[in-house]
Amino acid sequence: MTQTLAHRRVLVIEDEALVAMLVEDALLDAGFGVIGPARSVSEAMALLDAEVPAAAVLDLNLGGETSLSVADVLTARGIPFVVATGYGAAGLPPGHRHVPVLPKPYDPADLTATLERLCAGR
User: Fold this and answer.
1) Residue 2: CB partners within 8 Å, gap ≥ 6?
2) Fold of 3-119
3) Rounded to 10 degrees, what is the CA torsion of 10, 63, 26, 81?
4) Hey, where are the domains in the chain?
5) For position 92, what pLDDT does the model report?
């Protein structure tokens, strides 16, 4: 698809294997590179220490633990991200209310369009 996005690597933070696979497939089909998926906060932090993604897809609930600390790190490092969650925007703390939210289940085209917007100009 869009070749200009091929160098844009997106960190996927999702604990559900099937959802992670669908996200990865959608990103690859849209021409993005994929980092991960990270299935826990510790995995996400390790991947962030190893590489700087162009953007991230963040599930708020990772196996019962909140990923808000990952959101804090992404924000502090200036890495744009989209929250993909079943909780909707109401689950975001005040410091992250500006972040785009895709309520699960979402259309993969909505995800890739959101990431294209987030990566524009980066």
Assistant:
1) 30, 31, 116
2) Rossmann fold (3.40.50)
3) -40
4) 3-119
5) 73
